[in-house]
Amino acid sequence: MEVMVHLFPRTRFRPLWIALVLALGAAAAWAQESTPGLEYFDIPATGTYFWRYVPPDLPTDRPVPVVVFLHGSGGKPENYFPYILGPARVAGCVLVMPHSKNGLGWGDPADELTITESLRMTRAALPVDERRISVSGHSAGGAYAYLLAYQERLRFSAVFSMGARYYPVDAIADPSYKAPIRMYYGTNDPNYFGGSYESLKQQWQRLGIPWEEEIRQGAQHQEMYNATTTRGFEFLLSKSYPGAEPSCTAGPDHLCLGGGRYRADVVWKDFSGRTGTGTVASCSTADSGLFWFFDPTNWELMVKVLDGCALNGHHWVFAAATTTVEYTLKVTDTLTGETAVYHNLLGTPAVAVNDTNALDCP
After folding, report:
1. What is the tally of structural domains in the chain?
2. 182, 201 in Cβ contact below 8 A?
3. pTM above the 0.70 mark?
4. Mean pLDDT of 123-137
5. Domain span at residue 259?
């Protein structure tokens, strides 16, 4: 895709960006020095760079959602730190913030590679929830966000654009999924009253793309608000790219429950110090199953996983064992990578597990 996305004719609107850059410069410099979880990375493949922000209280022992944020024309990621890092922490997502190749806009042939390299390097460092990688941006970055989401097959789960200009999208490149989009505009933004907003709404309706909006009275194009950005990021995280298949395949040493979505494994240690893995009994069913440790006629542990999403937003894990040997039961949601772990100490009569908050419902 070779489309250069500029905000407006530069001779008329460049002062807006100069004012924004000057206003945010001091705050951005502070953020670079003092914000936990904020890291800079060079991208040798394209000669540019990206910042990655991992909120310090975000659990990284399970797959994390990622938002790719694209800066506006004439800007850079650092200008946006005061307006996007806090919302990312509240929403609970990792931010990936690349810099465009030429700095004036997006659409250089190297820009898509910059974004895919940023994501590749993030995947190498963190467990990424592949179903919740979304894209956002302000101004020219917002326009490039929706162009990428709809004209390329990058599997973005949703789009959040702020003050974006209209660019035509004739057809969706990925027919299997139309990523929902949320649009934000201020009423004093030329992209709002000048026709882009109305044209984009008509375009999404024509293409059958789900959309929603937030309009702030009196706001200028260059004005950003933490509350608005937080709502936008929360919208992104509420969407998931479909088509992920459960990855549990039946085997003698683990149970596959819930249509193959959940995998249950158990390891044990007896009073002689011997260790082993639980073996699945032949009478297991779709949602529950049995393990034996020493003898196939002597069952030790029953495990059941139920879908309680409609009741409390979680998958439930129940387990009951008739043993005093040490064991650790791990139940894994193969779609998200989230795990629930239960341990019984050696010499302790096993107690029943009734965990109705075991695994989140994404």
Report:
1. 2
2. no
3. no
4. 90
5. 255-360
